[in-house]
Amino acid sequence: MATAIPALAPADADTLVLAPYSESWWAKVGAMAPADTRLAELNASSFSGDIKAIGYSRSQDHEKHDIPMTGPSRLFYIEASSTDAAQKIAEWLKSANGFEGRRVFVEGSTVVIGQSWLTSFKAPEQTMAGAGGYAGVLTTTEGSMYRNPDNEVRSLTGPDDTASARALTAVMRNGFGFTEGTTWVGTSPDGTSWSGDFRSGGVDPEQINFTGPEAPWTLQQ
């Protein structure tokens, strides 16, 4: 099943989840979104005929905000059946329970929801639709998940040259064994358990080190 969501998700996302719409999938993917957006609490069943797919992404936030230290960019996507349907869903989200914690934008037939400090949204120049190594799968029953450990470091800590980025990279390399450039794509019928494989890189057991100078808790300035 084709979806427009990857064309709105940034290419440096560390996580991209896609799912066909159902009440169950809404609850699972909605729970991945920031708690203050309160999406998981909402019931979108009245729009079930208008929603084709939903998604979630997390990536490094490259924008400057009035509120400092806002963390990574975490977006929830609702792909509607038409631009009119997207507008209706957006208007509902702007007044539904918990609206104070979210900002709602419409890009064509897709609704994009971010946290309250997000002042605007536009499709990034580089998106997951054109990202090398990405091959998300979406069917009428199965969802897909993309993971990138290197991008996770950037999402959570920012630029690679900071002490916190080096420390978290050590966790990824020497704690979990992820090699540089690792990406993984999996699928799930229900969002509870996932199965997949590495599209690039992987886990090198010989890289794991808990005692030497590259131990994951060693913070090198």
In words, what does this structure look like?
This protein is globular. Strand 7 (183-188) and strand 8 (195-200) form a beta hairpin. The relative contact order is 0.17. The mean pLDDT is 89. Helices cover 19% and strands 24% of the residues. The termini are far apart. The chain has 221 residues and is an alpha+beta fold. Helix 3 packs antiparallel against helix 4. It has one domain. The protein has helices spanning 23-30, 83-95, 149-157, 163-175, and strands at residues 15-20, 51-59, 73-80, 102-107, 110-115, 143-147, 183-188, 195-200. The protein has an eight-stranded antiparallel sheet. The protein has four helices and eight strands, in the order βαββαβββααββ.
List keywords for this structure.
221 residues; alpha+beta; eight-stranded antiparallel β-sheet; 8 strands; 19% helix
Overall geometry comes to globular
- Determine the structural class based on helices, strands and strand pairing: alpha+beta
The count of DSSP E runs of length 2 or more, i.e. the number of strands, is 8
Q: What is the H/E string? A: EHEEHEEEHHEE
Radius of gyration: 18 Å
Arithmetic mean pLDDT: 89
- The count of helical stretches stands at 4
Biggest sheet layout: 8 strands, antiparallel
Instruction: Quote the distance from N terminus to C terminus.
Output: 47 Å
Low-confidence stretches: none
